[in-house]
Design a protein that fits this description.
The structure holds 3 protein chains of 3 kinds. Chain A is mainly alpha-helical. Chain A is 70% helix and 1% strand. Chain A has 7 helices and 1 strand; from the N terminus they run ααβααααα. In chain A, α1 (3-22) packs across α2 (30-65), α1 (3-22) runs antiparallel to α7 (188-236) and α6 crosses α7. The radius of gyration of chain A is 29 Å and the shape is extended. Chain A starts with a helix and ends with a helix. By secondary structure, chain B is mostly helical. In chain B, 71% of the residues lie in helices and 1% in strands. Chain B has helices spanning 20-41, 45-68, 84-128, 133-156, 173-208, 214-230, 232-241, 256-291, and one strand at residues 14-15. The longest helix of chain B is centred in the middle third of the chain and has 45 residues, at 84-128. In chain B, 31% of the residues are buried. Chain C is α/β, with parallel strands linked by helices. Chain C has helices at residues 8-13, 17-27, 44-55, 73-89, 104-121, 142-151, 153-156, 198-205, 220-228, 238-252, 261-295, and strands at residues 61-67, 93-98, 133-138, 161-163, 169-171, 190-194, 211-215, 234-237. In chain C, the strands form 2 sheets. In chain C, strands 3-2-1-6-7-8 form a 6-stranded parallel beta sheet, sandwiched between helices. Chain C has a two-stranded antiparallel ribbon with strand order 4-5. In chain C, α2 (17-27) runs antiparallel to α11. Classes of the chains: A mainly alpha, B mainly alpha, C alpha/beta. Chains A and C meet through α2, α4 and α7 of A and α2, α4, α6, α8 and α9 of C.
Chain lengths: 240, 301, 296
């Protein structure tokens, strides 16, 4: 088979599969279910292949067997097989507690990391969130443009920056109060603070929505490009 | 105290590759492992929770110790520990890779759980010819095809021909089949599944996005500003309309980019940070609860 | 509701789903047939990403976490292609690993092959596996692996093998790409191209070298928090970010291929977003008209 013919065949089947999955937009149908099951089967098969080829072969099997003249074999890695297989006891009614052993080991390893992880992730953000809300100079309302500022000038907080920082701090504290004070409040100040926190949260959610829409539409545009340009124009009509 | 990765060649922990000694040790290890497994199957009920809790605690203790124990200072290859605490520090940092390897390997074995579950469910459907068993047969057939050609392709790339297989001209039937089912089918269907959501977003936004409350109005307004700022043509037109092309002076603060940047830097970021801090406190608490097995369901028989 | 006797307000609020789907299908198809140049103002985050990549010295090795699959091809492939084009033009070596998905290594290799074919067509030397780049492989336990990389990268990659020119698999640390790397700080940058939250895992564990992120749109707002706190030195978000990088590359490399996925998809994104905005406006118009009617 010529490479061009193979390429066209590959693209055509990809388009048929894509359109098959898109038929769910009309309603659930057998065509969609067929391709859905093909997708699940291929994905499951590939996962099994990749588990061995990308992970277990190098990290486990090669470690046990070693390499002639290059590396010794470490027999203790073989003990990981029975431990890993204990996970499959989750399907046993009598012995399903044993599946918690490998899961417990992995969860234990994860949870032990959380202290270090928490600080590395949130420490810099906490430091960055403590912003000056009072200006240190009134020589200019906004940050002066022009030539590169001296270190002393760069360290100044101008009134416009102070206002922005104040908005930042108020937003952060209101949002935190919304999450932390999740019980019935009598204090009017706190009540208003949580309400404002909820409103300001909507700004964050609106931004997330806008970005999510961009992503999903881009994925759809990519599929349309695959169908119309890669398959139809380049593949079938040999144009472009 | 030597751990596996530090052990010199030909010791109790390692033997020459391909040697009968290695195979014997591996066989013994497997027998011991299976014996332990059978032992656990017959373990008294009252011991089950302590076993799981103990293993979970020891696993977590490694990373907690790694974080809190003084790390070796200015360590270079060949440096030896000068005291017992230093030796423990050396051991912990050397063991990190081995422990990470163990968790990778265990995770690899456990990834097969989902596949096993899938095979069980669909295998049963086919065997008993339940409703829609034909689709289950399609799923199993696809899985077997991917496994056969996936492994076949990988095996064909081992050995001396490996680098040559990067060139399609050297491909055989197995390589083409892997490419067809992975690139031609799986990858395209993966992308199609993700992209279908775009249609649902449009219809959901049309039906649900109504200015009925202050919160909805704020959300809608911010989403609109963000979407408009994503469009370069709109940004350009807006800047032209307010005489800011090129941007200059105080008026630059009223370009779409500047408005969006102001909202992002001063309102969006702190609100997302507030959410993050809340989630972070929860994750830390959950981490401690899991490590100490304080969760109700953890480790019970 | 009697479908034949609907008021304008009711009609505006009850457009059939199929009509919306067809409009979106058409809006995301037709502009693809035309080349529509769109003016662009690059975001500061994208500019910082580009400048940080340009700072990487020629001949050095960067570490790339390629944590995306074809599911997010629309954005991630564009980000990855742009990144590889810059690195290859600067003759920077790279080592690619992944912690996200078993499909990710293959998606990465496919793009590298695509860019190499492009270089061969332009009579440039293609990037050779082992000599110029290595595939470190997939680590299913991302947290543990990333911790290990941060602590001792030579140990973390010790078991990983790739094909050398002699056809055999050899440990990646013996390759010309990685043999001079003793610790993770020897990499000038860690560049993460991801369609999921693997960037969080790296930020939580690696803080001794500059991290650059190329993420999908949905992760953008969350990652922006790390960018503003300085934990991440540059951030490319979604299709807009891809287009930003492509237009920046067009200024520095005008004689080479720069405009790709970003330039192809960006005009179509405009129309799709306009469709969304207009349908939301129509829905709200219907709601307001309905309210006025009921008040009257």
């Amino acid at each position: 088979m010529k490479p061009e013919t193979y390429q066209l065949l590959k693209l055509t089947f990809g388009v048929i599969a894509t359109v098959g999955l898109y038929t769910v937009l009309y309603k659930e149908n057998k065509f969609y279910r067929f391709f859905e099951h093909v997708f699940l089967g291929l994905a499951a098969g590939w996962t099994l292949v990749a588990i061995w080829t990308e992970t277990l072969y190098d990290s486990w099997w090669s470690k046990i067997m070693g390499s002639t003249g290059a590396a010794n074999g470490y027999w203790a890695y073989a003990l990981l097989l029975p431990i890993g297989l204990m996970g499959y006891f989750v399907f046993s009614k009598k012995h399903n507690w044993m599946s918690r052993i490998p899961i417990g080991i992995i969860l234990g390893l994860w949870s032990g990391q959380q202290i270090q992880v928490w600080w590395k992730r949130y420490g810099p953000q906490l430091a960055d969130s403590v912003k000056p809300i009072f200006p240190s100079t009134t020589s200019s309302f906004t940050v002066p443009g022009g030539s590169k500022p001296t270190p002393f000038e760069a360290a100044q907080v101008y009134p416009s920056q102070a206002i922005c920082n104040l908005i930042f701090v108020i937003t952060l504290l209101s949002v935190l109060s919304y999450f932390l004070f999740s019980f019935d409040l009598k204090n009017r100040f706190l009540k208003n603070s949580t309400t404002m926190g909820r409103w300001l949260l909507m700004v964050g959610f609106g931004a997330i929505f806008g970005s999510t829409v961009m992503m999903r539409f881009t994925l759809l545009i990519d599929r349309m490009y695959f169908i119309w340009i890669e398959w139809f124009m380049h593949g079938l009509l040999h144009k472009g | 105290m030597d751990l596996l990765a530090q052990v010199p060649p030909e010791s109790f922990w390692s033997q020459a590759s391909g040697s009968s000694g290695l195979y014997m040790h591996v066989a013994i290890a497997l027998i011991v492992g299976i014996a332990v497994m059978f032992g656990l199957m017959n373990a008294p009920t009252r011991l089950r929770r302590p076993i799981v809790v103990g293993l979970t605690f020891i696993s977590g203790l490694f990373y907690v110790l790694l974080y809190f124990w003084p790390a070796p200072i200015a360590r270079t290859p060949g440096t030896l520990p000068v005291s017992t605490p230093d030796a423990v520090g050396f051991w912990l940092s050397d063991a990190l890779t081995v422990v990470a390897n163990f968790s990778s390997i265990l995770s690899g074995f456990l990834l097969g759980l989902g596949i096993y579950s899938l095979v069980r469910i669909h295998g049963r459907k086919i065997a008993k010819q339940q409703k829609d068993w034909g689709f289950s047969a399609v799923l199993m057939a696809s899985m077997v095809i991917m496994i056969v050609f996936g492994y076949g392709d990988w095996i064909s790339k081992l050995g001396a021909n490996g680098p040559k297989m990067d060139n399609q001209a050297n491909w055989g039937f197995v390589n083409y089949a892997r490419d067809f089912f992975f690139d031609g089918m799986l990858q395209q269907m993966d992308a199609a599944m993700f992209s279908v959501i775009a249609f649902y977003i449009l219809s959901a936004a049309y039906r649900a996005f109504r200015i009925r409350s202050i919160e909805a109005t704020i959300l809608l307004a911010t989403a609109l500003i963000v979407m408009l700022s994503l469009m370069g043509a709109v940004e350009f037109g807006w800047a032209n309309a307010i005489g800011q092309n090129p941007p200059h002076g105080f008026g630059e603060n009223f370009t779409l980019t500047s408005i969006k940047t102001f909202i992002v830097d001063n309102v969006q970021n702190p609100s997302l940070r507030g959410i993050d801090f809340g989630i972070g406190i929860g994750a830390l608490a959950m981490g401690l609860r899991l490590w100490l097995s304080l969760e109700k369901a953890g480790g019970t028989a | 509701m009697d479908p034949t006797n609907l008021s304008l307000a009711e009609k505006l609020q009850s457009l059939p789903k199929s009509a919306l789907y067809i409009i979106l299908f058409v809006a995301t198809s037709i502009p693809l047939f035309f080349t529509i140049p769109i003016p662009n103002k690059e975001s500061k985050a994208s500019i910082d990403f580009y400048q940080e990549v340009q700072k990487v010295p020629e001949g050095s090795t960067v570490l790339i976490a390629s944590d995306w699959t074809n599911a997010t091809r629309g954005e991630s492939a564009g980000e990855y292609k742009a990144l590889l084009r810059i690195l290859m033009r600067k003759k920077v070596k790279f080592a690619v690993y992944t912690t996200a998905d078993p499909q990710a290594p293959q998606a990465s290799k496919d793009v590298i092959r695509f860019i190499n074919d492009e270089r061969v067509a332009a009579k440039q030397k293609p990037y050779e596996r082992w000599t110029d780049w290595v595939n470190v492989g997939y680590f299913p336990n991302g947290e543990g692996a990333t911790n290990s990389i941060a602590s001792n990268v030579r140990s973390a990659f010790a078991d990983k093998k790739d094909f050398s020119p002699d056809g055999a698999l050899h440990p990646v640390m013996e390759s010309p790409v990685l043999k001079n790397i003793q610790k993770v700080e020897d990499f000038p940058a860690l560049i993460i191209v991801t369609g999921s939250n693997t960037s969080n895992v790296a930020i939580e564990r690696i803080n001794s070298l500059p991290i650059l992120l190329a993420v999908t749109g949905v992760m953008g707002p969350e990652m922006n928090v790390y960018y503003t706190s300085g934990q991440v030195k540059g951030l490319v978000t979604g299709l807009k970010g891809v287009y930003d990088i492509e237009t920046l590359m067009q200024k520095d490399y005008p004689d080479q291929v720069n405009l790709d996925n970003g330039a192809k998809y960006y005009p179509t994104l405009h129309l799709a977003l306009v469709v969304l905005i207009v349908t939301v406006i129509i829905g709200n118009l219907g709601m307001f008209l309905g309210r006025k009617r009921s008040e009257a």
